[in-house]
Amino acid sequence: MSFINYSSREINCKIVYYGPGLCGKTTNLQYIYNKTNPEAKGKMISLATETERTLFFDFLPLSLGEIRGFKTRFHLYTVPGQVFYDASRKLILKGVDGVVFVVDSQVERMEANIESLDNLRTNLQEQGYNLDKIPYVVQYNKRDLPNAAPLEELRSLLNPNKVPDFSGIASTGDGVFDTLKAVAKLVLTELKRGG
Amino acid sequence: MASPQMVMYDEEARQIQLVCDRLSRDANAKAVLVIDKNGQPIAQSGETDHLDVTSLSSLTAGNVAATGGIAKLLAENEFSGQFHEGQKTNVHISIVAQRVILVVLFDERSSLGLVRLRVRKASDELTRILDALVKKAASSNAPSVFAEITDEDIDNLFND
After folding, report:
1. Best exposed site among A65, B112, B124, B160 by fewest CB in 10 Å?
2. Where are the domains of chain B?
3. Single pTM value for the model
């Protein structure tokens, strides 16, 4: 649910990075944080365990500039990927405007990817959203690893509806901004359509 | 979409600001924040210059969402309020009209009792304003400013 503030001439949108545990959601946000000008970003918050696994969420506020005199602000969130944090994931999806699904390309994580994608669809439905209708992009992360599955295989399994998708290596930043731009564009286009 | 878009207009923003200013003064608070349930700051009053309002809003909304999740598990409708006691600063958090979160930061110049009392009055006022805002947004026939946005406008945002 975007928030349009005619008083302060701001538009605020929420983007959630979803995906299985250790797929690179937090790494995506860290890269964006490190590469963004200080005036365009707020503090990045990570609610993580002592072993740096996401416990509740990561949060990064970004300003993308102005459209027709309105400042566009995007709040980026990650969910905790580990299966047993499902209750937290549901909470973070509340009010979402756009979703990035981060795929772990490693062959042995295929089942975890499928499970997480099913979980995303179910949890969105519980909030009254339909994954086929909301702004949604896919990132195939960890493309540099030797055990990465072929892209075509990942596509047919995890992106049957052919939403915009990107290859990524979040640790070096490959594909990170392409993914963010794509989802932000879809969110703004949805707003334009009055969504 | 699951929930209607939240919209804020000048008039209601001004009214909410007035309520915040008054609450901040009457409760001897350090600061007062109004946040939407998704963590977007709506209004602020008092000593907020040194505060990271964006982060505070997001974390408070997360906190309220988590507490709401606990309430659900315990078959409670909602925990309407929370209080965190610090060495220097205390935080009183309450949900208003099931839509927004009212946060009062206060220190030894005030007390929990006074804050609670003033929050109750402010909540009633905010509820009235928010109800009116929802009606206004629902009945507004004015075309959204975003209907006029072109694809080019959107592309221009991303030109490095």
Report:
1. B160
2. 10-157
3. 0.91
Distance of CA A142 to the CA centre of its chain: 16
Quote the crossing angle between the two packed helices A86-93 and A110-126, to the nearest 10°: 50
Mean pLDDT confidence for A47-65: 92
Above 70 in pLDDT, residue B2?
A: no
CA distances from B77 to A150, B63, B125, B139 (A): 48, 16, 22, 29
Q: What is the ipTM of this complex?
A: 0.84
Residue type, B95: I
Q: Report chain A residues whose CB lies below 8 A from the CB of B4.
A: 1
Residue in B52, B69, B158 closest to A43 by CB:
B52
Buried b (16+ CB within 10 A) or exposed e, B39-72: bbbbbbbbebeebebbbbbbbbbbbbbebbeeee
d(C-alpha B112, C-alpha B105), whole Å: 10
- B interface toward A at CB cutoff 8 Å? 1-10, 12-14, 36-40, 42, 52, 54-55, 58-59, 62, 65-66, 68-69, 144-149, 151, 153-155, 157-158
Cα-to-chain-centroid distance, residue A141: 12
The structural architecture, per CATH, of the domain A10-192 is: 3-Layer(aba) Sandwich (3.40)
Helix (H, G, I), strand (E, B) or coil at B67: helix
Contact B8 A4 (CB under 8 A): yes
Among A25-39, B66-80, B137-151, the range of highest mean pLDDT: A25-39
| Domain B10-157 -> CATH class | alpha beta
pLDDT score for B149: 79
Q: Which helix (H) or strand (E) holds A10?
A: strand A10-18
B77 — pLDDT class (breaks 50, 70, 90): confident
Structural domain boundaries in chain A: 10-192
Distance of CA A91 to the CA centre of its chain: 15
Query: Per-residue pLDDT for A194 more than 90?
Result: no
